[in-house]
Structure to design on (931 residues):
């Protein structure tokens, strides 16, 4: 077709912005501002603080120079890397063995094993550390097993971290192993390949990205964790605890900011590497695979049952120890049982009020967080135009995953406590705790929402605009009900994490807003270890209760909507 | 149905170009659609049909050019300010709403009372023969029923323009053939101006008043199904619609072409070619004749039957001209003809290409 004169003179069509578009863009601006306030500004405050002296004067790299000139400080980098790497190797190996048993053997009780393995997610990381004290501490039940080594230090930290990070690694590896393609195994078998060789040529490559991803996740969780080393680290200094010591112990905010920045580096690195690896994994999963069905093999099934049994018993054991210790009158002298330690109001550093504060905080985090995250994800996914703004928001949604909780908490003090900040009124309120916790767990929630939204027909919005129905009506009437399972997943995820987190809130709670997880630390510091264990168990029960409620709700919804949900 | 002579177009598209980054999905498209017409955009996957439809709907506004609907310039308007109903390939039915709620979805915003909405919904459901399915959910319906729900939903607000993007391609063959008639009849009954996108030539030929054949972002030809089939304007159209023999030839003088030693007369399309130019001669297999050939029949020549394949209702023969540069072509013969003339593999046969059925294109 010839180029008509019109084509030569025609100018680019400037699309008229509809009311829907205005509303969407308005919504996106609001979300963008929220993320700026919740993520970017605090991090910027932290960054700039690390370049200032105590009077707020810019001093360039002086603080960093001082940091690296102080062996007591920069040795922690080595310590942090050591325990993170060690925990990573142990956790991922154990999780792989466990997942292998769950997917490739015909051992009995798989569902129970799966459930047990996920329990540590419900507990604050302080809990395994407390249990380890009871087992291996000065008056420990089985301290002889350490052959004279002290539990206070790297050994204790690694043991606690392995317990606490195990389910995170397991979920990832389990997913990777369950997507195995049976046809590859049949091919290997038909060629007479030995079991061992099949393992190295089929199983491992298939699960490669899952294993790598699990490594990054565990490494990041450990290096940024504050709870375990705080309780059982002894004199073994690690970065996350250094931040705390600098800020709370020495009131040296600048140095706290520097350590925070140092801690941010490996977390960012692991985060970036993991993103790259996960990008590759998508391509791997898109192939149509025939699911692998294991066949019974007495010897192999027995081996796997033993491996899984030992791991599961350890998990239950550590939990059991904390529960038992919290009921014992005076370990190890008077082993009679009492509920005395649950009388938190009588303890130094704790109160039942802290438990209620935690419930309130977790409730708000779940409600507000889910609303913000889901609406934000919807706007980012479904709005048109505004490409740059959308890209920026997407980036801001990803950043929190790379920021260690303790660094985020510190950033929040700097930002909200700044004298010139009009948002200063939030300081020392429940509001700042909720905001910080939502931010800390924003990324995973956001990705869950995005995954659910991507499964929706992309033309719902087009259909409603052709019918002149505003998009928000369709959002409420169709998108939200259809995505309800994901919305419930997000809220329970936020709730449980809000109950268990310590690192993000340790700097920003106030006397009126003390939280249960913080009370565990404070009671532990005050020597009320049995009460600390009791409070930690209360957190576990609350989280477990919420999980159960979530399970029942999800099942109820599945029943109610089975008429229209395709299986 | 409506034709271009003198009538005012309902929808006019002028110089529409759509860019995706550096990629030009539509190049300077011009098209008129008339009141109550059923137009099909036909073309291979990726040629820009959906892009053009979405530009008309305002869902992905064109980079350049303008579009008028019912005399109003709608070039820059968002979908919510245009007047159309749309059915997508996926149907995009709201899974958590019943069929009635889906169909009545667009009526909620109008100031209609509940009873009127209900009456309108049941009227629409009757129209698409789903009168008793109103309380079911989309997942409980068959593909064909879902498609009709989507159609009823799109028609509920009585739009001036109905847009259908491959509405039948997700269905299995039998349902598809049945629904072609249903949709066509419905359109005829309501008289709503309709544009349907399809890559299925049979669908376009059976349903459309006019077909717009598209290829790589441009319009190759616009015409009635018969025009498109009989007089393809380009080799692309000739190949895409129906089956076609493409035979190498050389232009002769006074309107003849040579296919090897065979001289052929073509009634149209040898204009502008100089003697000795290379050409492509097009003839459809079903247009090759073998019966009632006399010495007066033009374009007659001897051929050899190389293969004869029985396809149920007819035979497809592979033939070759009996000359040095042996040209191969296919012909469809009826079962009758094969029997009456005793056509057999490996035997010669006299055939003819009717003058009126030959198309000649420059180049090879
Ligand atoms: N949003 C988009 N971004 C980039 N390219 C696109 C987009 N939508 C369509 N295209 C490209 O434009 C061309 C025409 O697409 P489309 O109109 O969907 O083809 P079809 O004729 O099959 O409906 C294709 O090459 C397609 O890849
Ligand atoms: Mg298309």
């Amino acid at each position: 077709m010839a180029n008509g004169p019109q084509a030569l003179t025609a100018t680019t069509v400037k699309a008229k912005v509809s009311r829907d578009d205005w509303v969407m863009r308005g919504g996106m601006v609001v979300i963008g501002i929220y993320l700026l306030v919740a993520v970017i500004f605090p991090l910027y405050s932290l960054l700039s603080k690390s370049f200032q002296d105590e009077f707020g004067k810019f001093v360039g790299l002086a603080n960093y120079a001082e940091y690296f000139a102080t062996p007591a400080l920069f040795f922690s980098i080595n310590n942090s890397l050591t325990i993170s790497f060690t925990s990573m190797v142990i956790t991922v190996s154990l999780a792989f063995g466990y997942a292998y048993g769950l997917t490739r053997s015909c051992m009995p009780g798989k569902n129970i094993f799966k459930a047990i393995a996920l329990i540590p997610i419900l507990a604050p990381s302080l809990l395994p550390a407390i249990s380890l004290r009871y087992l291996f501490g000065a008056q420990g039940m089985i301290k002889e097993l350490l052959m004279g080594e002290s539990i206070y230090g790297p050994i204790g930290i690694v043991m606690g971290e392995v317990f606490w990070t195990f389910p995170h690694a397991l979920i990832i590896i389990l997913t990777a192993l369950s997507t195995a393609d049976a046809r590859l195994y049949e091919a290997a078998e038909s060629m007479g390949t030995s079991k061992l060789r099949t393992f190295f040529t089929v199983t491992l490559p298939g699960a490669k990205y899952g294993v790598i991803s699990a490594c990054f996740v565990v490494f990041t969780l450990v290096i940024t964790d504050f709870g375990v080393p705080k309780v059982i680290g002894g004199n073994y200094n690690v970065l996350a605890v250094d931040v705390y010591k600098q800020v709370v112990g020495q009131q040296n905010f600048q140095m706290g900011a520097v350590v925070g920045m140092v801690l941010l580096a490996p977390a960012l690195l692991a985060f970036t590497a993991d993103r790259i690896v996960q990008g590759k994994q998508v391509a791997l999963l898109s192939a149509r695979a025939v699911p692998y069905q294991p066949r019974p093999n007495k010897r192999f099934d027995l081996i796997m049952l033993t491996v899984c049994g030992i791991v599961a018993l350890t998990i239950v054991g550590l939990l059991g120890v904390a529960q038992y210790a919290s009921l014992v009158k005076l370990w190890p002298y008077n082993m009679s049982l009492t509920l005395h330690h649950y009388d938190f109001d009588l303890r130094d550093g704790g109160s039942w009020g802290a438990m209620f504060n935690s419930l309130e905080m977790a409730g708000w985090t779940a409600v507000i967080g889910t609303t913000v995250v889901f609406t934000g994800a919807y706007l980012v996914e479904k709005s048109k135009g505004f490409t740059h703004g959308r890209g920026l928001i997407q980036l801001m949604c990803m950043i929190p995953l790379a920021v260690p909780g303790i660094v985020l908490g510190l950033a929040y003090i700097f930002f909200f406590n700044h004298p010139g900040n009009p948002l200063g009124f939030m300081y020392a309120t429940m509001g700042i705790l909720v905001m910080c916790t939502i931010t800390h767990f924003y990324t995973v929630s956001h990705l869950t929402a995005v995954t659910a939204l991507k499964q929706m027909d992309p033309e719902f919005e087009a259909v409603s605009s052709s019918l002149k129905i505003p998009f928000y009506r369709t959002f409420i009437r169709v998108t939200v009900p259809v995505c309800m399972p994901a919305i419930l997943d997000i809220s329970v995820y936020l709730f449980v994490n809000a109950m268990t987190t310590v690192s993000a809130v340790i700097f920003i709670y106030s006397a009126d807003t003390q939280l249960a997880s913080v009370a565990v630390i404070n009671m532990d510091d005050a020597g009320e270890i049995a009460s600390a264990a009791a409070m930690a168990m209360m957190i576990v029960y609350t989280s477990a209760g919420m999980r159960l409620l979530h399970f029942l709700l999800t099942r109820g919804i599945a029943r109610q909507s089975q008429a229209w949900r395709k299986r | 149905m409506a034709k271009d002579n003198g009538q005012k177009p309902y929808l006019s598209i002028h110089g529409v170009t759509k860019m995706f980054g550096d990629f030009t999905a539509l190049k300077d498209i011009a098209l008129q659609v008339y009141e109550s017409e059923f137009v099909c955009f036909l073309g291979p996957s990726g040629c820009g049909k959906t892009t053009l439809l979405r530009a008309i709907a305002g869902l992905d506004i064109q980079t350049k050019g303008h579009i008028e609907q019912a005399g109003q310039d709608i070039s820059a308007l968002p979908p919510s300010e245009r007047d159309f109903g749309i059915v997508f390939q996926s149907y995009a039915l709201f899974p958590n709403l019943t069929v009635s709620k889906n169909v009545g979805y667009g009526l909620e915003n109008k100031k209609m009372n509940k009873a009127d909405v209900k009456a309108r919904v049941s009227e629409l459901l009757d129209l698409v023969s789903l009168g008793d399915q109103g309380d079911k959910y989309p997942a409980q319906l068959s593909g064909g029923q879902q498609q009709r729900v989507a159609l009823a939903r799109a028609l509920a607000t009585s739009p001036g323009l109905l847009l259908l993007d491959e509405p039948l391609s997700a269905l299995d063959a039998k349902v598809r053939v049945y629904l072609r008639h249903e949709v066509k009849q419905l359109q005829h009954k309501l008289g709503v101006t309709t544009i349907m996108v399809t890559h299925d030539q049979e669908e376009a030929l059976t349903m459309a008043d006019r077909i717009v054949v598209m290829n790589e972002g441009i319009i190759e030809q616009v015409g009635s199904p018969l025009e498109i089939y009989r007089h393809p304007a380009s080799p692309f159209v000739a190949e895409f619609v129906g089956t076609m023999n493409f035979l190498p030839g050389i232009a002769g003088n006074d309107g003849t072409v040579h296919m090897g030693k065979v001289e052929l007369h073509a009634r149209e399309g040898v204009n502008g070619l100089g003697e000795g130019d290379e050409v492509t001669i097009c003839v459809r297999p079903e247009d090759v004749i073998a019966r009632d050939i006399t010495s007066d029949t033009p374009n007659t020549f001897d051929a050899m039957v190389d293969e004869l394949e029985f396809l149920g209702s007819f035979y497809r023969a592979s033939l070759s001209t009996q000359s040095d540069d042996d040209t191969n072509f296919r012909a469809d013969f009826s079962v009758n003809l094969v029997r009456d003339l005793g056509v057999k593999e490996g035997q010669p046969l006299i055939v003819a290409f009717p003058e009126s059925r030959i198309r000649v294109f420059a180049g090879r």
